[in-house]
Amino acid sequence: MKRLLLLLAAALLFLTSCAPQEAALPTPEPTAEATAAPTEAPADRPYSGDGKGYEKIWYRQRDVGWEEDVVFFADAFLDPYHGHPLLTDRASLKKTYNDLVLRYSSTSSESFCDPALREEFIRRVNELILDIPYTSNYDMPIRLAEIAALLGDAHSYVSVPVEEAFPMWLKVFYTDGVPECAVDFAPAGSERLLGSRLTAINGVPVLEIAGKLRPFVSLEAETTFYRRALDYSMLLNCSLLRYIGVMGPERSAVFTLIDPDGNEFETELLSRSSAAMWHDAVGYHAENGEPESDHGTLLMERFPYEELWSTMLSEGRTLYLRFNTCKVDDTIGEIVNEAFSEAAASGKLEKVIVDFRSNGGGYADLSGNFLPLANAMRDSGAELYVLIDGGSFSAAVGIPSMLKRRLENVTLAGTPAGQPTSFFSGWQSELPNSGVYFQYSDRFNEFWPGNSDEVLTPDLVIPQTYSDFLNGVDSVLYRLLEGGE
Who contacts 68 (Cβ-Cβ below 8 Å, separation ≥6)? Predict the structure, then answer.
């Protein structure tokens, strides 16, 4: 269960047996309320780009609430002082990390404004305002997510609520360059699903569904698209599946899977409410002892609630430090010092592995502890490895890139990160009436000036394979510790 809780925390954010069962969940909200005729025909462009003095055009309480939310959302992105650099005609803050201590950056101003994008953003906002009476409460966040995704910025997005979904947690793999997803968690009684690859929902291929979800995914890099589109919060979110036409108002769907032996089978599953999603979750677990080994899939999830933790591997020859988040306090310096002191005391340290995989980011300088970490790594005299993957975002891209720049013998390993080394970032907020969470950027960060790579890419690209997943093996750690291929 700890594994699932970690996954849920990092995502922001997953069955029943083959026969659908009853669960406490209301029928999806009827659209009658959302399709009532407006009181009067509004103007074509009620929103001009500035909500000050905005005059509401709707009258029903429900419609007014959403109208206020849409204007609030638009004003945040278009604010002349703190709005998104691509949408505001101003010189936006640009932070460039030339100093390799990471704590300091040079600041400048630069205009990033794209007038055509601004015009399209405002056009979409007005289109949504005019559609409010005809758009259900479930679909409103989806429409807002689509508008935010126009910016191509992973830090600017709307989180579509997961109010009803199919409770599976999936792992994404690549086989011959083609993405696949395997079931890592399911409810008790659905153990046959564990380890099986999901190929279709209601007869629609999974990759086709991902394509239909693309308009709602905010990202800069194509390398992370499937990680987000095939995530539980999108692929198995009933609101989204209904919106793109994969399922109707019913609460069940037919899932097509291929088990580890290559046998295809179908099962009809019942959705659950968010409150009942994980009360009986069981996870896939290889029974050969590998998951608990130094290179096992359970290692990085051993302490899911710790910001940073460490352990010695390979009989004291390898120091492993795991950052679950970069949102740390200044006390992590003590953990770093103790870890390297213990490693030095062993007298046989050969490798240091610092793991930033599936780390959503946080503080760019680790609350003042970046330099002590970098110096301790350098002074260890060991081979240095920093791990990243498609779940490494924001500071978990900036810090590994700076370690690579600062330390000559650092090897980045894993798979391409979720962002390039230069990206927008900014603020977090909630819509005042619906409470829907969203983020929007107001600045630009350069963690590796002059690096024009699409994403931060490892020196050693080591994808997690499906066969290793089935055997409980972390492909990256196995390669680094055992020299495996």
Answer: 56, 432, 433
Q: How far apart are CA 351 and CA 319, in angstroms?
A: 6
* DSSP-derived secondary structure letter, 79: -
Give the closest residue to 301 by CA, choosing from 287, 320, 318: 320
Measured in degrees and rounded to the nearest 5, phi and psi for residue 354 equal: -110, 120
Q: How many CB atoms lie within 10 A of CB 178?
A: 9
Nearest to 185 by CA among 281, 290, 299: 281
61 CB-near residues (< 8 Å, 6+ apart)? none
- Element (DSSP H or E) covering residue 239: helix 238-243
> Tokens 């947690």 appear where?
169
- What's the pLDDT band for 55 if we cut at 50, 70, 90? very high
DSSP secondary structure string, 134-162?
A: GS-TTHHHHHHHHHHHTT--TTSEE----
What value does the mean pLDDT take over residues 170-196? 93
Instruction: Return the SS3 of 411.
Output: strand
The pLDDT tens digits of the residues spanning 86-104 come to: 999 999 999 999 988 888 8
CA distance 88 to 473: 48
User: How far is 304 from 205, CA to CA, in rounded Å?
Assistant: 33
Q: Is 304 in contact with 2 (CB distance < 8 Å)?
A: yes
Distance, CA of 103 to chain centre: 25
Element (H, E) at 169: strand 169-175
pLDDT digit string, tens, across residues 373-393: 999 999 999 999 999 999 999
In single-letter form, the type of residue at position 41 comes to A
